[in-house]
Write a structure and sequence with these properties.
- With about 280 residues, the chain is of the alpha/beta class.
- About 40% of the residues lie in helices and about 20% in strands.
- It has one domain: Divalent-metal-dependent TIM barrel enzymes (TIM Barrel).
- The strands form two sheets. It has an eight-stranded parallel beta barrel, surrounded by six helices. It has a two-stranded antiparallel sheet with strand order 8-9.
- α4 runs parallel beside α5.
- It is globular, with a radius of gyration of 18 Å.
- The termini are close together.
- The relative contact order is 0.15.
Length: about 280
């Protein structure tokens, strides 16, 4: 699917210690056409990354243009589930949207995160927080990642529905296929059918389930294609439905230092996406 291999992207979470220039060149050398900014020179807060400051934005965009890689998403740490911390999340989100606009990045990523201890309170906080952020984000679109407790239809659709009824148009989803796999496994199409109209960006990673005591399960990340997630089936369905966004390798080396180097993961990513 040549149209897919022309829309490959990667998150700098897998090389967060590198500079913007080093990350961009690394991705380009491994066949990436897009870059998702989530960690530059060891910093993940956009407000503390000099390359994203207004006075450096033109220079940073020129660098990316010279390398020949498109900045697609600016990843934030904003979590909107806690009403007591929503203002801080909003402040970070507004600053990140401003930084994204300065570099011509169309999307910023945020989280719902936890639905505990009270789902109704968390859902209301997520709806209100994302609604406020979208109102302040201008032409930048706010993407809620399928992540944490907001990885299933029961928790996501009330948020989507409320924002849609409220007329919010600069909102969408990042479908993280690993986080939805935790809830749905091989029944992923049931979830996809619900969220498809709002998917703007896709995170690709892979894992295997590990049985633990008491009947619980955990997950171990693997190289793309070595785990249990039906990546080819998911990508094929998206392509069939006309999805035109990027497929982004989210290699979580910053959080899981035991993983192989990102160079190895990028090489495998290109291999499995070329089908």
């Amino acid at each position: 699917m040549s149209n897919i291999t022309s829309k490959l992207c990667f998150s700098t979470l897998g090389c967060a210690g590198l500079s913007l220039a080093e990350s961009a060149r690394l991705g380009k050398a491994h066949g990436m056409s897009g870059i998702e900014l989530r960690g530059i020179a060891g910093e993940t807060d956009a407000r503390k990354i000099p390359d994203l400051e207004a006075e450096h934005a033109a220079e940073s965009r020129a660098l990316l243009d010279e390398v020949g890689i498109v900045p697609v998403v600016l990843g934030t740490s904003c979590k909107f589930h806690d009403p007591q911390k929503r203002r801080a999340a909003l402040d970070e989100g507004v600053a990140s949207a401003k930084a994204a606009a300065g570099l011509g990045i169309p999307f910023i990523r945020v989280f719902g995160n936890d639905a505990k201890p009270d789902l109704a309170t968390a859902t209301r906080s997520v709806i209100e927080g994302i609604g406020e952020l979208c109102a302040a984000a201008g032409d930048v679109t706010v993407l809620l990642e399928v992540h944490g407790d907001f990885n299933r239809s029961e928790t996501l659709m009330p948020v989507i529905g409320a924002l849609d009824r409220g007329g919010v148009r600069n909102f969408g989803l990042i479908w993280d296929v690993a986080h939805s796999d935790r809830a749905y496994g091989r029944e992923w199409q049931r979830f996809y059918n619900d969220i498809a109209p709002w998917v703007r960006h896709v995170h690709i990673k892979d894992h295997v389930r590990i049985a633990e005591g008491g009947g619980t399960r955990s997950f171990r990340l693997t190289m793309p294609g070595d785990g249990e997630i039906p990546i080819h089936d998911i990508v094929s369905r998206l392509a069939l439905d006309g999805y035109g966004g990027y497929f982004s390798l989210e290699w979580e080396l910053m959080w899981h230092p035991e993983l192989p180097p990102i160079e190895d993961a990028l090489t495998r990513f290109v291999e499995i996406m070329n089908f």
